[in-house]
Amino acid sequence: MHSSSRPRRGSRAPGGPDEPGRGSHVVQLYEGDAFLLDQVSRFIVAGFDAGDGLVVIAEEPHVADLEARLASYGIDVPAASAQGRYVALDARQILREVSVDGRVDRERFLDVVEGTLARVAENRAQVRAFGEIVAVLWRDGRHEEALRLERFWNELTERMPLALLCAYPVRVGGCEPTGALLHEVCDQHTEVVPAESYTALVSSDARLRAVTQLQHETDAFARERSERARLAAIVESSDDAIIGKTLDGIVTSWNDGARRIFGYTAKEAIGNSILILIPPDRYHEETDILTRIRRGKRIDHFETVRRRKDGSLVDVSLTSSPVKDGQGRIIGISKIARDITERKQAEERLRLLAREVDHRGKNTLALVQAIVRMTRAETVPDFVRIATGRIGALARVHTLLAASSWRGADLRQLVEEELAPYGANDAARVRVAGPDLALRASAAQALAMALHELATNAVKYGALSVPHGAVSVQWVCDGRSGFTLHWSETGGPAVSAPDRSGTGTGVIERAVRSQLGGEVDFDWRADGLVCRIAVPASQLAQGRSVA
């Protein structure tokens, strides 16, 4: 795209735009049709005299009046048309041809208008064109669209041998358009020709006052334009989506933040309904927003879900505000959408964590209650000692699980933690061997209780009760069926099977069979206890690793 504005070389004297140079883009301001047609006639007649090609794009009544004036100057308009030197087009018809969804489409405009200009320019040094499409848009109140069209015209003047004249009515419906808009119109042109009221100022002092007033307004507009540019830069660089739309929900502006969040480019979004971003089951939200905005209400931080270009959904927080014109009338809507996906995900993680903490807390209390119920002792001190040991075993496995964020526990670490108080680091007393395996959290808790009971029994009655006794803990994988752990004691006092099942063996059996869904066997050999614990594969953590 070419530059959106033109360097202004100043204002032309009130005589009219009859001597424009190549590449010029002159704007004629006017208050009445008669004055406009006088000025355009002078512009076209001068072009005939210079041998230029001529193109007129005006409303049909103006074309007819203009050609009558040219005939009065002795110009044979039909002959010029037949020679391809003069072409007249209906401005409203051209506007319809180059518009898409109510907006002037750049590609269509360049295709239709540039093609016409190129044909007239053949074998001629320059083409003079009068374009009234901008005036049609201006009179219809479509000021911003008129300014867009001026930028397209400027592209043509920069790459063709073209001298362009366009015109703007400075009084529409009996009221003056805003000064800021008129200054922006002037900023799109190389020269400005004043309206007839300036010509009517007979004294030099009156004209000087008018020029001074215009200069003050120009300076004010320059400051306003600079501030607009600064604000536009802020909007464009925002991470939030900042979207303008009409009161009917048609998108009119779209910043880069909107592209990043929703996936549509500005070209794809502008001119479309905002409903492209809204899931069908939430259309009612937009209806409610439009209704409230028309009443002058503002919608703050409304959290909802919107749809991206690829069809995926995104959590957003919306703020919608009415846009008002200089008279306080609501003319549009400004919407800011902030992507709150990360915040929503964090809230969901916290919610799940709270549920997990509650679940684990209840499970832990249930385990402690079970430990207390299963503990038997002759005296209170013995009861406290046994219960404390078992709860300590539970606490140690919880520490291991916390280190892995409760994904599971490493079997080797679990065994070593339970045997640490009894010489796990002394290879002559305790031997631990087996492949790397990771247990699910519930399996680790159950196996920790079983190992604690085995170690406690070994310290009180078995191999660890004497200086030269030893314990071997080994496990092997059984393919898809899980693994088998062997607890073997040697070098201790002679042991024999108890006459009845004790509380320790009862804890082990319940932990293995009820909680792990496995099998446990006790072999009370003369030289020490051998215990085999078979654990199914379902108790292994996924991936067999918690690193």
Task: Give a description of the structure.
- By secondary structure, the chain is of the alpha/beta class.
- The protein has 18 helices and 20 strands.
- The chain is rod-shaped.
- The protein folds into three domains: 25-200, P-loop containing nucleotide triphosphate hydrolases (Rossmann fold), CATH 3.40.50.300; 239-339, 2-Layer Sandwich (Beta-Lactamase), CATH 3.30.450.20; 372-544, 2-Layer Sandwich (Heat Shock Protein 90), CATH 3.30.565.10.
- Residues 1-15 and 172-178 have low confidence and may be disordered.
- α6 (133-139) packs antiparallel against α7 (143-159) and α8 packs across α10.
- The strands form five sheets. It has a six-stranded parallel β-sheet with strand order 3-2-6-7-1-8, sandwiched between helices. A five-stranded antiparallel β-sheet has the order 10-9-13-12-11, with helices on both faces.
Topology:
Blueprint: E1 25-30, H1 33-50, E2 53-58, H2 60-72, H3 77-82, E3 86-90, H4 91-97, E4 99-100, E5 103-104, H5 106-121, E6 127-131, H6 133-139, H7 143-159, E7 162-169, H8 179-187, E8 191-193, H9 196-199, H10 204-237, E9 241-245, E10 251-254, H11 256-262, H12 266-269, H13 283-294, E11 299-307, E12 313-324, E13 330-339, H14 341-374, H15 380-403, E14 409-410, H16 411-419, E15 430-433, E16 438-439, H17 441-460, E17 470-477, E18 483-490, H18 503-515, E19 519-525, E20 528-535
Parallel strand pairs: 1-7, 1-8, 2-3, 2-6, 6-7, 15-17
Antiparallel strand pairs: 4-5, 9-10, 9-13, 11-12, 12-13, 14-16, 17-18, 18-20, 19-20
Helix pairs in contact: 1-2, 6-7, 8-10, 15-16, 15-17, 16-17, 17-18
